[in-house]
Amino acid sequence: MINTPLSALEVAMVQTGTRAVDTLRDTAAFAQGLERLGYHRLWYAEHHHSPAIGAFPPVVLTAHAAASTSSIRMGSGGVLAPNHAPITLAEQFGTLAALHQDRIDLGIGRGPGTFDEATARALRRGAGPATDEEYRNDIVAILSLLVDEVALGPLPEPWLLASSTAGAALAAELGLPIAVAHHIRPQNTLAALERYRAEFTPSRWCERPRVLVCVEALCAGTEEEAAWRLGPMEVVKAGLLKGRSETPFPTPEAAAAHRFTAEERQALDGFRAQQAVGTPETVVHRLAQLARETGADELMLTTPVYDLRDRIRSYELIKQYIEATTTP
């Protein structure tokens, strides 16, 4: 059975038939629900110009949710370094850490957070994608500024997000905890972790390799219900497989009527097999398997379902099953 700490990643889906403000209204309720259930931390991802995901800055969501909770760790998963001046990120998360002591995480990633080239260039003020050297320099600058310029008390806990061996190598070089995006590129997970552990150098931030693995997890009372609730996200993924911009996040009913091609269905089924979808028993057993395979110190669950109540219910079912099967 699983005894690995569990956390959550929220990507703030804007559901068809709702407004962005409705998604924002749910932010505090979701954080409070996870805290009540005993989840360890909750992170917010940075996205831009997407019809399916709200363009809500992680620092703002973190501040809002942290103010309505008291114990769960909060932070970014992640803020994207190429889109921000290092001193801005250091000041923002240094301030959050001072306001909510020992509860704030600064998870940093590289991607632009959008599939739209014009938006990516606007975020970079006309510049192209960051080079490897520019990205490394930004991370080093953020860490240095946190210590030397911004320190207002307790520091935020830094994490480096990675979905490749290159990202893993940078986390190892800088001695940072790593958060591996298994929910995005599961095929890279084991190779990235092997390199991270082999090349890790201790630092003031982390004395030994420390691994968080993020996995898509959707739990429901039956396998059929879980598949039905996963439908909206599969429609979005099918659009990405065709190289299209993201499609709106549909209702489960609309997703159930969607017709996938044979190639799409094969790709989606292959991806689902690498994640954790199904009944409580299925999901928890898969999470335990993933924890063993990766040696993860922590698993972070992302649950892209349409309704807030169903999303919280998924997290609740997982916790209930673990408690029922581990209590003497």
Brief overview:
The chain is 49% helix and 15% strand.
Layout of helices and strands, plus pairs?
Layout: E1 6-10, H1 20-37, E2 41-44, H2 58-67, E3 73-80, H3 86-99, E4 104-109, H4 117-123, H5 132-150, E5 157-162, H6 165-174, E6 178-180, H7 189-199, E7 211-219, H8 223-241, H9 252-257, H10 262-273, E8 276-278, H11 280-294, E9 298-302, H12 308-326
How would you describe this structure to a colleague?
The protein is α/β, with parallel strands linked by helices and 328 residues long. Helices cover 49% and strands 15% of the residues. The protein has 12 helices and 9 strands. The chain has helices at residues 20-37, 58-67, 86-99, 117-123, 132-150, 165-174, 189-199, 223-241, 252-257, 262-273, 280-294, 308-326; strands at 6-10, 41-44, 73-80, 104-109, 157-162, 178-180, 211-219, 276-278, 298-302. It has an 8-stranded parallel barrel, surrounded by 8 helices. β5 (157-162), α6 and β6 form a beta-alpha-beta unit. The protein is globular. The model has no long low-confidence stretch (mean pLDDT 90).
Lateral strand order in the biggest sheet: 1-2-3-4-5-6-7-9
Q: What can be said about the biggest beta sheet?
A: 8 strands, parallel, barrel
Number of strands: 9
Q: Helix proportion of residues, in percent?
A: 40-55%
Backbone structural class? alpha/beta
The first-to-last residue Cα distance is: 13 Å
Classify the beta-strand content into a percent band. Answer: 5-15%
**Secondary structure tally, helices:** 12
Whole-angstrom Rg: 19 Å
Mean pLDDT: 90
* Poorly predicted runs of 5 or more residues: none
Shape annotation: globular
